[in-house]
Amino acid sequence: MSRKSRAKPPSPFRRFNSSPAVIRLVVMMYVRFPLSLRNVEDLLFERGIDICHETVRFWWNRFGPLFAADIKRQRINRMRGFRHWRWHLDEMFVKINGETHYLWRAVDHEGEILESYVTKKRDKSAALRFFKKALKHHGSPASIVTDGLRSYPAAMTDLGIEDRRDMGRWLNNRVENSHLPLRRRERVMQRFRRMKSLQKFASVHANVHNHFNSDRHLTDRETYKTNRSVELAEWQNLMA
């Protein structure tokens, strides 16, 4: 092994004067909570951190995908031996410059968001691309819950997994409820203007939501506080 291959990869923060802790805080506040860029600027000023809202925009665009990729990589490695999940699939209607687009989303049985994929149509080819992306990253589930959209069975037939499809009233509430946090962010951001920006934010938001999703309604307060401390500590170690 050469010396160059053994070298530690350079830090993504190396050309920034601000500390990594501040950058992580800014990205977490903007992506996790329904706050505007100027809301984040004002909240940080109260903490003694004086930055412009355009700095918030630049940092989340620069570091958000890096943090999200690190979270996703760690989660996939932890769940590598657990492939027999139930997936819930659905598509959101999203307006981009007045034109309807579709955000396909896959959620597992615990409410963790697996994949987000933006298309202009919701036909068989779009569903097939979405399935291939999800199956490549997360393996093959035991069952897949969908709604009545005909694109799902058409794509699943091509992949040979049509027998795993489940469909029924209220079965897909898991993914329907998972749309709500992104809908709140959409209103604060005053809609999206490009497919690329929607895809980018949806992917980052999904992984950050997964990281801080500790099922508060299922745990007592002390357990939740312990989980919250662990999540924040792990967040501060991202890309370290």
Report on the structure:
- The protein has a five-stranded mixed β-sheet with strand order 3-2-1-4-5, sandwiched between helices.
- With 240 residues, it is α/β, with parallel strands linked by helices.
- The protein has nine helices and five strands.
- Helix 3 (37-46) crosses helix 4 (53-78) and helix 5 (124-138) crosses helix 6 (151-159).
- The mean pLDDT is 89.
- It is globular and about 55 Å long.
- The longest helix has 26 residues, at 53-78.
Observed structural traits:
five-stranded mixed beta sheet; 240 residues; alpha/beta; 5 strands
Write the layout of secondary structure elements.
Blueprint: H1 3-6, H2 20-32, H3 37-46, H4 53-78, E1 86-96, E2 99-108, E3 113-119, H5 124-138, E4 143-145, H6 151-159, E5 165-166, H7 173-188, H8 195-211, H9 221-236
Parallel strand pairs: 1-4, 4-5
Antiparallel strand pairs: 1-2, 2-3
Structure, briefly:
The chain is built from nine helices and five strands. By secondary structure, it is an alpha/beta fold.
- Report the total helices: 9
> Helix proportion of residues, in percent?
40-55%
Would you count the extended β strands for me?
Answer: 5
Alpha-beta content class: alpha/beta
- Rounded radius of gyration (Å): 19 Å
Low-confidence stretches: none
N-to-C SSE string, H for helix and E for strand: HHHHEEEHEHEHHH
Q: What is the strand content?
A: 5-15%
Q: Quick one: overall form?
A: globular
Distance between the termini: 24 Å
**What is the arithmetic mean of pLDDT?**
89
What's the main sheet like?
5 strands, mixed
Arrangement of strands in the largest sheet: 3-2-1-4-5
